[in-house]
Amino acid sequence: MARKRNANRTAGTPTLADVARLAGMSEITVSRVVRNQGPIADATRTRVQAAVAQLGYIPNRAAGSLASAASTLMTVLLPSLSNIVFPDVLRGIHTAITETAFQPVIGVTDYDPLIEERILLSFLAWQPAAVILAGLHHTPIARKHLEQGRFRVAELMDIDGDPVDIAVGMSHRQAGYETGRHLIKRGYRKFGYAGHMLVHDDRAKARYEGLCSALQDGGLSLVAEMRSPGGGSTIAGRELLEKLLVAHPDIDVVIFPNDDMAMGGIFHCIHAGIVIKERLGIFGFNGLDIGQAMPLPLSTILSKRFLIGKTAAEKLLESRERPAEKTIINTGFDIIEGATA
Amino acid sequence: MARKRNANRTAGTPTLADVARLAGMSEITVSRVVRNQGPIADATRTRVQAAVAQLGYIPNRAAGSLASAASTLMTVLLPSLSNIVFPDVLRGIHTAITETAFQPVIGVTDYDPLIEERILLSFLAWQPAAVILAGLHHTPIARKHLEQGRFRVAELMDIDGDPVDIAVGMSHRQAGYETGRHLIKRGYRKFGYAGHMLVHDDRAKARYEGLCSALQDGGLSLVAEMRSPGGGSTIAGRELLEKLLVAHPDIDVVIFPNDDMAMGGIFHCIHAGIVIKERLGIFGFNGLDIGQAMPLPLSTILSKRFLIGKTAAEKLLESRERPAEKTIINTGFDIIEGATA
DNA sequence: GTGTTTTATGGTAGCGCTGTCATTATTCTT
DNA sequence: AAGAATAATGACAGCGCTACCATAAAACAC
User: Fold this and answer.
1) Could you tell me if B126 and B65 are in contact, meaning their C-beta atoms sit under 8 angstroms apart?
2) B83 falls in which pLDDT band (50, 70, 90)?
3) What is the DSSP string of A49-71?
4) What are the distances in angstroms from CA B341 to CA A136, B101, B239, B334?
5) Which candidate among A301, A330, B206, B268 keeps its CA 20 to 30 Å from the CA of A247?
6) 3-state SS of chain A: helix, strand, coil percent to 5?
């Protein structure tokens, strides 16, 4: 009767007790061997491992997490998967944790703090060992949980602000500013901006503001500005630049919020016979490989997405505890001069 | 004494018992309300929900999974994150499950069945509700676990083979074959292939074989073939085409295993002043947006990656049980005529 | 009005593992 | 050689939840 429930559940799936019985050891010893924890005699280890292999034992992590009040899960909340930036970050995270026991659970927030909050709470139900999210801007409730939780927190991409524990990324404001200065130095004077309408893309916004402030410091300002109602795709960039040039034929350089859109801009120029760089400069952001493989390599800023993900995950692995003090890691950025501006 | 352990663990984190006490109900009733399961009087539900909100109760999924021998986790194993194809699939999966209780745990296999096996086993420790992986080719051990596990299985991308439960994808062999037929119809006769050396990319291989067999059926064969030692990037495609043309200047069309490489090929042609389509046809695979945004839209095959992910996840959500019989869903593909071949 | 089903709730016993505290054998000090 | 430290193992309770069975009240059948 007592076994009935078990019979219907696990139906032969071996447990620690089964392994212990076969190896002639206590459960706790088997547990220690499996977790590679505490002092174990070589002979014991060998015997247990043989029993594990023979039974094909797979530890039950739900039971383990419950007993130890900690899991091996790492919550990763990303704004989007359409934008290659975030798969790159995820790849970096994955590279760092691939040889560890950590397993990433991922959520996509669509750049919406409320969705982020909802997903975060649902993921906290697993008592994750760490939480990685993008940006420094979260809802008050999310922020409270991040600060009080029994897990480490890394906030990626952005470092202009006050992190919970660890921030890894770059200053997007500064990147925008440097973009402006670079283009002014190149001799451009009539600046256009071809953006998108992703309201919650705080980082694109910060770059935009940095750009404007560089122009201002140089005695200039944007002479034209448009935003694509769709997302920030290549097609959107292409169509938007066409419109922008109809409305403002006098601009001599256009800044796009990302490389995808900038490449759309290039394609429009090729199509319309506009001489890139001389007649119209084009500048992107991200430093995608494909932009650098073009006949005219795109002028842009290299954001180190893979490095950001990898660094953050490595930092989180360093300790089991929450860090005593906040850390900000600036991975920086590189201006890629390219041939389009 | 008995409380000591608890004190050090959860330190105030409210449990079901706390909610039950506050609401004046039994734990099981609270559990039912939280899970939205079984008949509950409206008044009870309201009272419980108020208590949940007041305490900020977050259910402990580890305990829940242990008790019910089932989790809300969905294991997703992808070959790579560098290739945009898989983030697209993941996006589709995410779209399908975003309003459900499922949470994706992802692993990256690097196209290696042994890594896939290792990650699969480590993820099975969570008793996932479903497993999604790419391709139909797995190690015998992995296959055994997939067949015997208490979860549903979907194998994505490929349908040329024998699935465990559900396969969602397209026939890559057929796609390769159609590519060959299409190009022959277009008048091309001297075929070159510019591939990569990802040994485990079974699908690229299947397309290659389909292509060869179409050529054979048309009384033709590849006159030139090279493989880039690196991955399948745009840069690789650009450099490879240059080399291929040096060795075989007579070819009149080149097929690439993906759009990224094909775009590299286009960039080489633009750079070298080769008239695309007339002098040299170029054909890719995937139908990426960026290829269609180019001045000469890339001739390619649209693989429906997002749809594959979404369909698979939806199918998995349909039932809690393993399906009685195997299902193969062909999402098909579209030839995009483009302007490059 | 009696029997039967349905609705709403609760008691209890685990799920499979690990933290805590003991216990015994072994090695090291001086 | 006696005491102290270390290495190796085990007993046992309990983590927070849900499956299972039971019960009581309400609704329904005839």
Assistant:
1) yes
2) confident
3) HHHHHHHT----HHHHHHHHT--
4) 47, 46, 20, 15
5) A301
6) 45, 20, 35
Is the separation of the CB atoms in A131 and A154 below 8 Å?
yes
Q: What distance in Å separates the CA atoms of residue B246 and residue B37, rounded to the nearest whole number?
A: 69
DSSP β-bridge partners for residue B130:
B74, B152
Among B242, B253, B309, smallest CA distance to B284 is for B253
- Dmax over CA atoms of chain A, in Å, equals 85
Report the residue from B10, B104, B235 with minimal CB separation from A293: B235
Under 8 Å between Cβ of B183 and B255: yes
Task: Say whether pTM exceeds 0.70.
Answer: yes
Distance between CA atoms of residues A152 and A128, nearest Å? 9
Rounded to an integer, what distance in angstroms lies between the CA atom of residue B92 and that of residue B75? 14
Run of H or E including B89: helix B85-97
Contacts of B79 in chain A (CB under 8 A): none
- Token digits of residue B196: 């990569």
Exposure of A269 in the CB half-sphere (CA atoms within 13 A): 23
Across the interface, do A293 and B9 touch by the CB < 8 Å criterion? no
Contact A203, A230 (CB under 8 A): no
Q: Which helix (H) or strand (E) holds A119?
A: helix A113-124
CA atoms within 13 A on the CB side of A150: 14
Question: What is residue A124's three-state secondary structure?
Answer: helix
Under 8 Å between Cβ of A214 and A242: no
Say if the Cβ atoms of B87 and A81 lie within 8 Å. Answer: yes
Residues 8-47 (B) near nucleic chain D, CB < 7 A: 9-10, 13, 15-17, 27-28, 31, 34-35, 37
Is B84–A84 a contact, with Cβ atoms under 8 angstroms apart?
yes
Q: At A95, which helix (H) or strand (E)? A: helix A85-97
3-state secondary structure at position B40? coil
Task: From the CA of A29 to the C1' of C22: give the distance in Å.
Answer: 15
Q: Which A residues in the span 78-117 are in contact with B, Cβ-Cβ below 8 Å? A: 81-82, 84, 86-88, 90-91, 94, 98, 101, 103-108
Query: Which amino acid, A53?
Result: A
What values do phi and psi take at A267, rounded to 5? Answer: -65, -35
Instruction: Return residues 147-166 of B near A (CB < 8 Å).
Output: 150
Q: Which nucleotide is nearest to A42 (CA to C1')?
A: D8
Q: Residue A213 class from Cβ within 10 Å (0-12 exposed, 13-18 middle, 19+ buried)?
A: middle
Helix boundaries (H) for A200-288: 202-217, 234-247, 259-272
Q: What SS3 class is residue B63?
A: helix
Size of interface A-B (CB pairs under 8 A): 131
In whole angstroms, give the CA distance from residue B49 to residue B29: 11
Residue A10 is predicted with a pLDDT of 57
**A121: Cβ–Cβ under 8 A, 6 or more apart, which residues?**
A141, A142, A145, B58
Residues 6-45 of A with CB under 7 A from strand D: 8, 25-29, 32, 38-41, 43-44
A95-154 tens-digit pLDDT? 999 989 899 999 999 899 999 999 999 999 999 999 999 999 999 999 999 999 889 999
pLDDT tens-digit map of B53-78: 999 999 999 999 999 998 999 999 99
Dihedral pair phi/psi, residue B175, rounded to 5°: -60, -45
Q: Identity (one letter) of the amino acid at A260?
A: D
Instruction: Give B85's contacts (C-beta < 8 A, 6+ positions apart).
Output: B286, B303, B305
- In percent, how much of chain A has pLDDT > 90? 83
Dihedrals phi, psi of A232, to nearest 5 degrees: -110, 50
